[in-house]
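Re: your question from the hallway

Yes, I did run it. Sequences:
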Amino acid sequence: MRIISQIGEWFDGRLQLAAPVREAAAHQVPRSTASWWYVFGSAALTVFLLQLVTGILLALMYVPSASEAWSSLQALNHDVTLGWFIRALHGWGSNFMVAIVLIHMVQVFLFGAYKFPRELTWIVGVFLLLMTLGMAFSGQVLRFDQDAYWGISIGASIASRVPVVGPMIVNVMLGGPIIAGATLSRFFALHVFVIPGMLIGFAGLHLLMVLKLGINEWPMPGRLVKRATYVSEYHELTKKDGAPFVPYAIWKDLFFAAFILMAVAACALYFGPFGPTGRPDPTIIQTVPKPDYFFLWLYALLSLLPPSLETPALLIGPVLVIIGLLLLPFLSGEGEKSWRRRPIAVLTVLLIAITLGTFTHLAGFTPWSPHMNAWSGDPVPERFLHGATALQRQGALVFQAKQCRNCHSLGELGGQRGPALDSVAVRLTQDQLIRQVIQGGGNMPAYGKNLSPAETTALVAFLETLHPAGQAPARDAARDIVLKESGTNP
Amino acid sequence: MSNENMLSRRGLFMKIGMLFNGLVAIALAFPIVRFLLSSVTRGRGHAYLSWVTLGRVSEFPEGETRLATFQNPYVMPTDGKTVDTACWVRRIEGDQFQVFAVNCAHLGCPVRWFPQSGLFMCPCHGGAYYRDGSRASGPPERGLFEYPHKIENGLITIQAGELPTPGLSAGLTGKKPPCV
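Structure:
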């Protein structure tokens, strides 16, 4: 024991770190902050450390070359002992990190911790969030498969919409004219050197300010933050009702960090690594690219925005959101901290959470995309053809062969791009059906040039049979009268 | 020494030292920025574009749209399969052709041709185009990107080399949707 303490003293005589570390550990924090609500920041840091370690391990095998990245990932998955597990840890770690950083941010927002004097801590935190998302996107690119390839294609398409300099930004982003070797190399540099370096620096700054300014006290409704008095009030609180951070508060951080690491490991073990999906060969176009879960909401948003709004929303939206987040502590730097007295703050969080959740949920089954194989894979259910005439059956064939099923479902099977047609005859009369098929409209392409008159007649005859048993099809009353008067058979 | 405003000898050296560093930094900034922007400067004036042969005209039946592949003219040693590019070739009749990029004009996902319904459909956000490349429905604001093409000695050749994006850096054409 004596030798160990002597060695310790030898080092500390040179490093002189023991005193500041002891001071940081023993610094008084308000007792109320030793709460399970205050564990997300340290959990984010823990997962970040896991990402550093697993990332370095993956870099031992990964080859950042467009011609070999995919095969090196396959080798990691199948040939290297436990390579799949390290990949799974890194992939699930990234999912957990995005989620925990967001939860941390919501907690800080709802507890008013961004208010005076912690404005800069919040601002640095906003940059940490952006870097985390940057890591998530660039990491998805390094998993150089079809999703990665087309994901960059989408990123380049968005960047290209910037006025005037758009094409230049694309060239810088891709490192050349197309998505190729240079693209992967620069995303590798971003993911492995640039962003992690900044993350470490910013996280250090963030942590330093937490130590210097103290952990945000538990917000009490009615206890208002005032610039003039807050600091002295906080010091009084820590003196009167404080406790040393170690061990009083840290034990909960330790428990939660271990729990999160265990959860990441359990997910990695049970679900395994992400991809890689198909080889990144741009001539294989039979692919349905999809982003990782943290960008699914964006994927949905890009499908649902009206075309004219898309470019402004893509280019101005993120800027406004980031400016809003950065300005938040200056706009409401004082006053009420407790979420119990801040209904707009709570509603804002709920609204954003529900919006993102809904978009993410929608992106899970992409109702806006045609089902590319529905026309050949989902047959017209038998019950729609019972007692059908020859013409109607012919119409059902046209319906199938012209790929109407890719966008329209029958009996719950088929695309959801357009409305389900199980009872279309109740909604549209014969004339309206003909018009809709030939001219399109309401987001449906016009089929006039692609259907012969005979095919249209047959198709509409089939569509007219699509109504529930007890419900008559829609009918234009005036049409019957006109046809009767002119002596034509309806 | 009595006058505190007076610049001392060491103080002057420090200032000159800072100036010296500033000058060296500016001098070094030039090559660094040039290097970072090399992919932009290299492609100035559509320098990335060149004419690529897709194959014999007779390989493309009249009235049909077929997938053709070509190697991107600008190749680096580590590019692997990524330089292989696909495009849709529509032979209307005779020597009348249209060559479309597979990249959706919305956000660049690969569109697929469905001859039965005469539509190009995009799997990502639901864009659809008619056989002539014009916009049919969905989020795209315009028709498919079209490569400039020419026919010489029975070969069809297109001008390609850049990733087609809505910012339209390459010499790509394509029909904008008519005002409705």
